[in-house]
Amino acid sequence: MQLFHSHFSPFARKVMVVAHEHGLAESLELLPTAAHPVKRDGTILARHPLAQVPTLIDETGRAIADSRVICEYLDTRAGGGLFPEAGPARWIALNDQSTADGMLDAALLIRYELTARPESERSAAWIAAQQAKIESGLASFEGTAEAFAGRVDIGTIALGCALGYLDLRFPEIVWRAAHPGLGTWYEAFAARPSMMATRPPAA
Q1: Which residues contact 99 (CB under 8 A, 6 or more apart)?
Q2: What residues have CB less than 8 Å from 166, skipping those under 6 apart?
Q3: Alpha-carbon dihedral of residues 126, 175, 187, 82, nearest 10 degrees?
Q4: Rounded to whole angstroms, how far apart are CA atoms 122 and 176?
Q5: The whole model's pTM is what?
Q6: How far apart are alpha carbons 200 and 23 in whole angstroms?
Q7: How far apart are CA 120 and CA 117, in angstroms?
Q8: What are the 10-residue block averages of pLDDT along the chain, 203 residues in total?
């Protein structure tokens, strides 16, 4: 299998964490990309219409895009375990993934606003609105942080990658001070081999 990948993409990292948890990382050839919010990478576009990172190419040449789809594909391929079976645990994990991905979407929109737009075209109101989503997400997870102990599923993986991205790109958001329970959980989760193996380079 091949994966269009960037070491700085938190969504690509989520895919790689799942791959490491299932022992599939060595089965993935990482393809370099030039993905950009404005200028699409023609190499990825030739394989999938959204030209996004991550995009997986399976052994048949089929392209699978969106980290949520790729992660479930890899989990199914490995026999499951990171996506709970039908029942309350599944909806909790999927909802946690959705919230963490939403925080990442907001963080990336801020990042794009600051790096892809000229300063004269940037919107302070837009940035503030995205920051508010991140803050409400952090507060929500702080309220349930005690329940994360011992959980390794797509929800906690997505959350770990989201918090790692905040540390990487937004160190000015001192989220641990206001969310100590979340900080304690993340310190332990970030030490997992799969998280250590997928740490991005320093920004």
Answers
A1: 137, 140, 141, 159
A2: 103, 107, 134, 173, 175
A3: -40
A4: 28
A5: 0.95
A6: 19
A7: 8
A8: 95 98 97 82 92 95 96 97 95 98 97 90 95 98 95 98 97 95 97 97 74
